[in-house]
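Possible race condition, two jobs.
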Amino acid sequence: MTMQTTIAARDHVEPALCPLTDMGVIGVSGTDAEAFLNAQLSRNVHSHRPARATLAAWLDARGRVLALLRVLRAGDRWLLLTRGADDEALIRRLSLFVLRADVRLRNLSSQWFAAAAVGRIEPWLESRSVALGSHRGDSATANGAFLIRIGPRLVYLLSADAAPTDFARDIPAGAEQSAALEEIRLGLVNLTPKLSGRYTAHMLNLDSLGAVAFDKGCYPGQEVVARTQNLGTVKRRVFRFSGQSEHEPAAGTALIDASGKPVGEVVRAVNIDESRVELLAVVRIESASGALTCAPERGLALTRESLPGE
């Protein structure tokens, strides 16, 4: 059985524990760590509310998203969770803004194990006496591991152990692509180095994902985000599509309308089985419901699928 077939077979079979090999962990410590993060990110973090994993963006002055992070309080430090990013490059770039503050950034990725529980996971959580909230970003700790609610069928597991044996007990191993499929169905983009700095927060639907706050103080790109929100000048958004294909279109692959004009580009894709693919693409809003194909496979007709909140 191929990996793609395994994903299809488990699309409705519950649950599975899938590795997240591209999960990065950056530690932020020091007496000024919270103030530093609040000055840089699109959402405030709060040390007095540790049971949250805040989804936030780091933007440049043009309002382009450089990194998409989940910010989690862990004892006397913060953990920044990345997906598919160049963590060393991100640390170097963030460090330029530390100046004289008491802030230390370290790459801790090799010290943490990351996985995702995918499927009908509530009975699995209950069997381990984990009380995890139902809202996106709710977190809980159990046996030294962090659990983070990403969606109804998706929970991240983060452990400083090589592998959390208690949580892996009595749950089959799943393919990493199964977690990617659930993330795509939630509209979550992995901001890889190729995509960093290409899109505004609204293009990536970060306003509807709760990753930007419109009532917080200044942060890089805040004026652009506020102006876009107030004036309603969003021309492109992330949309979800499916199609028949044996191959995953690479990030940056163009979407073509019926006239042959490029109207968007793929930002994330995953094969469900040997002949079907689901993807997220940043597309011109007026073209999203039209007849679209995916270059260079001009025969790959795409069907628009729904995202939460649509």
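Job #2 (started ~2 s after job #1):
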Amino acid sequence: MRAEITQLDKGYKAVFERESAHGPEEVWKMLSDNRRLKQWFDELQMAEPVKGGKMLFDMGDGTVEELAITDFEEGRVLAFQWWTDHVRFEITQKEDGGNRLTLIETIDRITPQTAKDLAGWHVCLDVIESILNGDQVERGSGWQHWLEEYERLIDSMTVEFE
């Protein structure tokens, strides 16, 4: 399911939601355990898992960027800076034992990178679910389709909000 994107007073907010039959603790490990994180986002690593701590992003050219963790509640919330934007994961347990994983990206301004980030997060969430289901899916799978989809969505919003 595609993210819902809304305009804010300043910037935009993209909200992705995924329902899962897997327990919240399994999903949390996908976000916070570096061995599991590596399976769906090889460049990203948890360095200091606390509010005020940091995530590390390997740029692939020998440099590593630090991304400040802005909120951290063990088993429930992980939020961090994403350069000028902000990413927040929230896990909510459902009554049936499953969970809802919500990813909220607060976007400072639309740039040529925005659609790529949105497509990337979309595919990452799909890959997390596939891994939890025991399937082997690579992050590159389906990325181009979602890039085109988010480019169309952003183009339609930019015209609408101008």
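The mean pLDDT is 93.
Logs attached separately.
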